[in-house]
Amino acid sequence: MKYELAIADKTYSSWSLRGWLLFETFGIPVSCQSARMYQPEFHQMLEDFKPARLVPAMKFDDVVVYDTLAMAETLAEQNPEKKMWPVDPAARASARSVTAEMHASFTALRGACTMNLRRHYPDFSATEDVLTDVARMVELWEHCRENFGHSGPWLFGEYSIADVFFAPAASRFATYNLPRSDTANAYIAAHLGDPAFRRWRAMGIAQDYIQPGYDLDFPEGPWPGPAPLPARPVTSGPSENSNCPYSGKPVEDYLELDGRIFGFCNPFCRDKTAADPQAWDGFMKIYQK
């Protein structure tokens, strides 16, 4: 099956993050199209994904699926070997329940705490409606972890569609410093440290799209996820590698890390690596030689 996926800004589009994780974390190959939100090219991109009006949307064999829950069920049906839902029937039923609730609820949290993977506001003060949503979400996480999560760090032990759907919510807890239990805190940390999530966030930093209205006038703290290695772009080589660790093309752009110079085929490859070097296996193979 050949899949195409339409997504938007990686820093701000929580729905796009869900759609991308459905492919990335389960190892399903996909070709991505991306356009910046609120720009003419966004609507131009979706011309290829009619009747979808929003992202994410996926396409295969001229069939378009444009709702994240519909996408998840379709991919699970078409790729049964990936075990995208828990194998155990009771866990699977619970996973579908909490996923559906995440998909349809938590409107106060969504509205007041938009996804923003560039910021951390330690002094954010949530409204009572937001705190009600937060408490309910923590309750769901604790229930899943206590009853089904003993084999791993995720809601049902192994990573599943349920975790895909809660990944943007976990990022909101990080950005807005929302109250959580120890169990919820460990679950949030699992998301922030997940290599796929780190790659998505690093690509958003490399895109460097700043959407008006998403940043708040609060003091900022450091991102609460794993601290990245201190890489920085530099203007020239020579580099230790002659070919880009991702494309294999000759290097033209460079970064420095620990006094060593590494090369990439374009500024985006360089900048996504500089944002979080350890998120990228291709880079770490040459760094750790």
TrEMBL record:
SUPFAM superfamilies: GST C-terminal domain-like, Thioredoxin-like. GO terms for biological process: glutathione metabolic process; L-phenylalanine catabolic process. InterPro entries: Glutathione-S-Trfase_C_sf, Glutathione_S-Trfase_N, Thioredoxin-like_sf. Residues 236-245 have a biased composition (Polar residues). GO terms for molecular function: glutathione transferase activity; maleylacetoacetate isomerase activity. Residues 225-245 are annotated as: Disordered. PROSITE patterns: GST_NTER (PS50404). It comes from the Bacteria. Residues 1-83 form the GST N-terminal domain. PANTHER family: MALEYLACETOACETATE ISOMERASE. This is Glutathione S-transferase. It comes from Neptunicoccus cionae.
